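Model it.
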Amino acid sequence: MANHKSSLKRIRQTKVKTLHNKYYAKTMRNAVRKLRATTDKEEAVKMYPAVQKMLDKLAKTNIIHKNKAANIKSSLALHINKLG
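Modeled.
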């Protein structure tokens, strides 16, 4: 266990930030999963901008890596284009 006041505070802050980041990462994964499960092209095209915005925000705040966000956006665009 930590001895310094500052390290105890750092532990508390880290717990809060970890919970915050996990929540938004999980929300993003669920949105991506929902979009990938969609078979209707119109609905997928409507959902895509919201998911794209979410990915960009998470990449900007370093919750996910910017390249991961780009890869997910690219694969989702391919998925939407394949829908008939």
